[in-house]
Specification:
heterotrimer; A mainly alpha; B mainly alpha; C alpha/beta; A: 16 helices; C: 38% helix
């Protein structure tokens, strides 16, 4: 593969190199403005959902890329962010009705969106610190079990701590504070942070030794500390996404943050390529559109001569099949470990060709 | 009920549930040992077998035949799973295989929800199996005794299989060192198929026992069992067959102990405590109790 | 018997073998020398079918082997005893040896071969019921070779049998190798211990970065200053 200038967008210093990035940013902002003022409520909801997915996928990318922990339980951090922020923003009157048993200091607190979200994020960060500390010593499949264990623990705590969370019942009445600008503002912040971390010299070194426990151990504690930091930052943004989500759908329960949700984020990650941040963006966009189309198709479609009956639940099945196909035929995802190079993108747009279609990543057998 | 009777009651409970976990965990361990794949869809094999049996029972087929058919259905589904989803990705990193098994789980569960309703259906238990033995105030459910007996028989049979038959020894060899096994000329596809087949049969058996114990089935019934089996396997050491058995019984014991020892305010948190215990165990024995150190390729 | 023609093999992205060509005649003991990373193990892995060449042909007794599965290659009589022994630690010595015969159909002969291997390596008989992991390095190497012999190889590929073993043990093993040779087994021996290898070989090849750079009879190789300096000096 020809050497690509991956640091074109990452460590860019010259204005000339920054220009394509600024153009892109401008285009996105323009699209957002148009959506805000002209698009239907339906489209706006999709764009908000997309933004939240972006934050989730990109933070998961950071965690997987640098920490050596393949976090299957990351949705747990989302839950922590959602519940924390929602409890904090719930109007006092609602609190009395929905959460009569809250401790006094909480029952009298009502915060605005930003502080509540940030606090949610920080709580998740602290918990991530403890979790990461224990999991970091493990390797291979044992880590995945550990992260799943974390998710189960979160779930159990949420369901049983009635006074705080209403247990298994729906947590409703959350003020609809999420809008396009909050979501995409956080999304930009997340993408920027993850990009800076991943493509710093430190980040590159970490990625190189990510799967090599021996190298990591020989490099000592500072590496472990750095990995832990990446894991915590990733948890922070995931929790923020949780808060945004909570104030978007306004009602949820512990079951909203379990393994099924984990899977859709992972599908986006895998589709885009686990090593690529821009890949994660591509993955998130593709899967969001695919799910919307499928969700509409579930209601049945009328082709005139032919009629497709409603098949509820088909979208999940098709997602699962998509995942399996991607893993088999495009194991490295659409972008693999490379980032989108804007010059190449320009050239590709002029001369579209599906790269790698016949050049599959076939590994030599071991 | 005297102390002793209470103790016996709980012991039987623990051994019975431990047996189910052990049988499930063996299936997981067999596949993991050779392929390094944690097959989450293993849980859905329970579901497939149970629904197959239920359909036949509803059609009037005698119980034993329906049960057998259910077990066969599990086996077939397991083999299909291997052929379609896992064979094409052999050699992929462990994580990719784990995620794929998740995808298969979602596929099977949603397909089941579509085909059958998500509402749980009652599972008819034949007279003989549904009653219990009584000794004074001690009540031992027949199904528990059956579970323990079946597990015992299967464990003996399995031990014979992996130590005396060529295929069984090949499976253990492949689990130890796949490269060397290939160099000896084993047919990898055959050995892996056997691993899946046996594991699936065990899952089918567990499915029936579980359904009879609980009395109903639903499309998501496999989720908790496989999670527990997974924990059991990790406790004993992933990939180790004796470890899976040990882990299963340890887990059964742990659950019953926690149920009894935790203050009543904390009993709903039992599963969380199980996982915390697991993580603590892993910190001290990162490869489980009997697990071998996974060789790092330098 | 075996001929490698312009073989190219990739190990991931690394071009491990770059146009390797060599041959082994029936009944010979050919040795392959070279430093670490020269491609010796890669060559053996390619012959046994674990790695597939992207270019070139492997001709064995007139048939083209490239692309065959390891399973079929073992059945045609090519047995690879890999570097680092790779015995099955959790299996007993007996089970290890029986694994060697796993694809054989002639069960009565298997028993004979079992007795023969035990006579070749008496220490294995002593430890027949013990787990492979309890054996010492030398014993494990003997077990690995014994296991390979249980497959009745016509062409035996040995990868660094002397690695990490005490000289006394190495001698025992090399004596057995010579005995095998006299029994008519064709042997391709990869070794870092050039001295010992050249003592028993008929011909040899020197590999460097994936290619054959030198070949010839043992006398020719001995006389070569490059070999003298780099491989026999230690």
């Amino acid at each position: 593969m020809p050497h690509q200038h991956q640091h074109t967008l990452g460590g860019a210093t010259t204005l000339r190199e920054l220009r394509p990035l600024l153009y892109m940013l401008g285009v996105v902002i323009l699209l957002l403005v148009l959506t805000q003022f002209f698009a239907s409520g339906y489209i706006q909801r999709i764009v908000v959902g997309l933004g939240i997915s972006l934050i989730l996928v990109v933070s998961l990318n950071l965690s997987n890329g640098l920490t050596g922990i393949f976090s299957l339980g990351h949705v747990g951090f989302m839950a922590i962010g959602a519940y924390t922020a929602a409890i904090l923003t719930l109007p006092l009157s609602q609190k009395q009705v929905n959460l009569p048993d809250l401790p006094v200091w909480l029952a009298n607190t009502e915060l605005s969106f930003l502080p509540a979200t940030v606090i949610g994020g920080l709580l998740a960060t602290i918990i991530a610190f403890l979790v990461g500390l224990s999991l970091m010593r493990l390797s291979g499949s044992y880590v995945s079990v550990g992260t799943m264990g974390f998710l189960v623990i979160v779930q159990v705590v949420l369901i049983n701590w009635d006074s705080l969370t209403r247990g298994g019942r729906t947590f409703s009445g959350v003020p609809p504070l999420t809008n396009l600008w909050w979501v995409w503002g956080w999304a930009f912040l997340t993408i920027y942070s993850v990009w800076r971390i991943k493509f710093s010299a430190f980040g590159r070194r970490m990625m190189a030794i990510r799967d090599n426990q021996i190298a990591a151990q020989s490099l000592g504690i500072s590496v472990m500390r750095s990995r832990l930091l990446a894991y915590c930052i990733s948890a922070f943004f995931t929790a923020v996404a949780g808060s945004l989500w909570a104030h978007f759908i306004m009602a949820f329960s512990p079951r909203s943050f379990y393994f099924a949700e984990t899977f859709s984020v992972i599908t986006m990650l895998v589709l885009g390529g686990m090593g690529s941040v821009s890949g994660s963006i591509v993955g998130a966009v593709s899967i969001t559109f695919l799910s919307e189309i499928l969700r509409n198709a579930e209601r049945g479609m009328d082709f005139g001569i032919m009629r497709l009956p409603p098949i509820y639940g088909a979208s999940q099945i098709i997602m699962a099949i998509t995942f399996i196909l991607v893993i088999i035929f495009y194991p490295k995802g659409l972008l693999g470990t490379n980032e989108i190079n804007l010059n190449e993108l320009g050239a590709w747009l002029q001369n579209p060709r599906f790269l790698g279609w016949w050049n599959r990543n076939k590994k030599t057998t071991q | 009920m005297t102390q002793l009777q209470f103790f016996i009651q709980q012991a039987i409970n623990a051994i019975s549930i431990g047996s189910l976990y052990a049988l499930m965990a063996i299936g997981l361990a067999m596949v993991f040992g050779i392929l390094r794949l944690i097959n989450f869809a293993h849980g859905d094999l329970i579901m497939v077998g149970s629904y197959a049996a239920l359909l036949l029972l509803a059609a009037g087929v005698p119980f034993w035949l329906a049960a057998l058919a259910g077990i066969c259905a599990s086996m077939v589904m397991g083999l299909l799973m291997e052929r379609i989803a896992y064979r094409p990705i052999r050699g992929a990193p462990d994580v990719a295989m784990l995620l794929t098994s998740f995808a298969v789980t979602i596929l099977l569960e949603n397909a089941a929800i579509l085909i059958f309703n998500p509402t749980p259906r009652p599972f008819p238990v034949p007279e003989a199996l549904g009653t219990a033995q009584r000794f004074g105030s001690l009540r031992i459910a027949n199904i528990d005794l059956i579970a323990i007996a079946v597990a015992l028989v299967l464990l003996v049979a399995l031990t014979f299989f992996v130590t005396r038959t060529q295929i069984g020894i090949s499976m253990r060899a492949a689990s130890e060192d796949l490269l060397a096994a290939r160099l000896m000329g084993i047919n990898v596809n055959v050995v892996i198929s056997y691993a899946f087949a046996i594991g699936s049969i065990l899952a089918g058996v567990v499915g029936l026992l579980w359904s009879m114990r609980v009395g109903k089935i639903d499309p998501l019934m496999g989720f908790y069992p496989v999670l527990k089996a997974f924990v059991a396997s990790v406790i004993g050491g992933l990939g180790s067959l004796p470890g899976a058995v040990l882990g299963g019984y340890v887990l059964g014991l742990l659950e019953i102990l926690l149920q009894g020892l935790l203050p009543s305010a904390l009993t709903p948190y039992r599963d969380a405590f199980v996982f915390i215990a697991l993580i603590i165990l892993l910190l001290f024995r990162p490869n489980g109790i009997l697990g071998s150190v996974e060789k790092e390729k330098i | 018997m075996l001929s490698f023609e312009d073989i190219h093999v990739y190990y991931g992205h690394v071009h491990a073998l770059k146009g390797m060509s060599f041959e082994v005649m029936e009944g010979e003991l050919v040795t392959m020398l070279g430093a670490n990373g020269a491609g010796k193990s890669t060559t053996l892995l390619t012959i046994s079918g674990i790695l597939k060449p992207t270019q070139g042909q492997i001709i064995y007794e007139g048939r083209n082997l490239s692309g065959f599965s390891p399973y079929s290659i073992v059945r045609s009589g090519i047995i690879h005893c890999p570097e680092g022994r790779h015995i099955f630690g959790g299996l007993t010595v007996r089970e290890n040896l029986m694994m060697g015969a796993v694809q054989r159909r002639d069960h009565s002969q298997v028993k004979q071969d079992f007795d023969w291997v035990c006579s070749l390596f008496p220490i294995l008989s002593e430890r027949i019921g013990q787990n492979g992991s309890t054996l010492s390095g030398g014993e494990q190497q003997m077990l690995a070779i014994g296991r390979a012999l249980m497959a009745r190889p016509r062409l035996l590929l040995l990868d660094e049998p002397s690695l990490g073993l005490a000289p006394v043990v190495v001698q025992i093993i090399f004596d057995v190798i010579q005995q095998l040779r006299q029994n008519g087994v064709t042997i391709l021996l990869v070794e870092q211990n050039a001295r010992k290898a050249l003592q028993i070989a008929d011909r040899g090849y020197l590999l460097e970065t994936g290619q054959v750079v030198l070949s010839g009879s043992v006398q020719e190789l001995h006389a070569n200053p490059a070999i003298e300096r780099h491989y026999l000096g230690g």
